[in-house]
Amino acid sequence: MNALAIPPRLLLGPGPGNLPPEVLAALAQPLLGHLDPVFLTLVEEVKEMLRRVFRTANPVTFPVSGTGSAGMEAALVNLLQPGDRVLVAVNGVFGVRLANLADRLGANTLRLESPWGRAFDRAAFLAAVASERPRLACLVNGETSTGVWQDPAGLAGPVHAAGGLLVVDCVTSLAGQEVAVDDWQADVVYAGTQKCLSCPPGLAPVTFSPRALEAFRARTQPVPSFYLDLGEILKYLDAGGGRAYHHTAPISMVYALHQALSLVLDEGLEARWQRHHDAAAQLITALAPLGFTPLVPEGERLHPLTTLKLPAGLDEAGLRRRLLVEEGIEIGGGLGPLAGTIWRIGLMGHNARPEHVERLVSTLKCLLGR
Amino acid sequence: MNALAIPPRLLLGPGPGNLPPEVLAALAQPLLGHLDPVFLTLVEEVKEMLRRVFRTANPVTFPVSGTGSAGMEAALVNLLQPGDRVLVAVNGVFGVRLANLADRLGANTLRLESPWGRAFDRAAFLAAVASERPRLACLVNGETSTGVWQDPAGLAGPVHAAGGLLVVDCVTSLAGQEVAVDDWQADVVYAGTQKCLSCPPGLAPVTFSPRALEAFRARTQPVPSFYLDLGEILKYLDAGGGRAYHHTAPISMVYALHQALSLVLDEGLEARWQRHHDAAAQLITALAPLGFTPLVPEGERLHPLTTLKLPAGLDEAGLRRRLLVEEGIEIGGGLGPLAGTIWRIGLMGHNARPEHVERLVSTLKCLLGR
User: Which residues of A touch B200 (CB under 8 A)?
Assistant: First the structure.
């Protein structure tokens, strides 16, 4: 079990994607202690760069030491108390998961269901906000399971007026499609590193608005987690908090995120969003002649992850397996009610480039004998 | 904020320590998807190697996707329900944290306090087990805050007889001092990667006994976490569970752990334990002439982390800072009631070697003008 023999892969599934060489090199830098002033400077720089990528001035912006799902959990565990009402727009795996997690935390959860593959019904969402006055109103900006993009703009006002907070899942959208936390007036936004940031999985960038922080400070019951307790985390993360030990930061992952964020900001967010848009459009156009059609109507599409309905009669699992094992290209299958009926093709971060689309399309043509 | 400029450090604090070059190289390997058969083979090998390092046959043995504190949380969140009685031997930061976490989860927590720097009172612990019949009886095998080693042997029988489960924190002992999960008959044991395994922080190896798994299956209330829910995790981790998506495994960290475990097993556990024993003994002997004396009596010492009382009049914070900034050597200060009165010197994993002890001692002599 000694040597790692990692075959080369072009990772065009729902994440992770391939890493830029600079990020791989950052991972291999020697460790520092988590209280080393040099490391703390890196952490401060990561926080500042995350603010720029999230487009927020929120002081409380940092990477949670876990994957994107830990970011979701950090959002809810800090802001929910048993019995709180929670509204979740449910139309994919991550909406289902938000609602499931709210249930686990003892919330009174209201699911606003809509079909998988379409955006949620804004009017129904706002009606539920007004009538139910939920503590948290949650939606998924980029639904990785369906390829749907949902617009958080214009929701925070009514949510705040009803005494609640707006929670937005940006795991697959951050740095790939417009995310504007302060313009949205969103209160808690979480993401993952392994999608459009082109960083390994293992950290979850999060940001909490001052309003969310105030709600956290007003809790009457303890957070049912120590690891994710915002108050405990801030004692370490805030320069003013005395840098008290909370947990040992995942040093190598923070190096990688620092490097990945630098690359994102060097490119510029608008240019990066455009690159994701263009790659998705190229993919849809190129696969149309093979009989693949978009699941999601234009205007509701998540550019970093395209979902395609399959041509009739395709042995989708067999073909995906051949793509992976014979050709070294990973793509994703459908989940839940979409299993077997769609493919999920991620063109994320470093991978959102014409040459990768061309390689996938030409390989597919070859395998399909076209 | 572009280039990472990481200064060289000899990391002799409470963790992380320095990494072997093979582990750094593993981190920089290209990513695989978390459902890629090649990656799943690596995961299976990691699980098998962890069993050997934990000395257990427990099928449910795997790395939690978070640091050691997430391992602690995985243990308690899966096995506790509100109102359960929990006994914790408290004599350091990690005993305090176990009890705090049990409180957060709604347990009825009984703290068996003993002085920081001494092992817990076994007779009192067993008396409390018999009288209180706790659901969980918890102790810290290697208390990183005090340098105390506590023996879990001989406790499981009475705990089981009282209808409970034995939980042991091996964050700082695993692969540095004897850990024998099956001999101990411990039910849940968790560790961290950044101590004696010489892997970056970010994963928490855990193992659950069949008895613990049975208790988990008998829960009547949901686990108040999705990220750490053992049932959800096993759907992905168990080859028989269908490899359902739970969260995106931190691929690079799993590579590093695979490589680190291979190195541990190549060396052999007994040889590695002996190396940690010898390094600690060398350190204590070499620093005695400078007026440093062990906090912990022989027989209760955690070999990977030695705590030393300071000579009178030492400017300990200033000296630690000079060691770090001028000499590139990190050591740890005291925590809680021991702040300012002790040093914590870690000789862990790759770093438990005579040349590192010699470098620290000669540097200290020089700075102290001796």
Answer: 31, 250-253
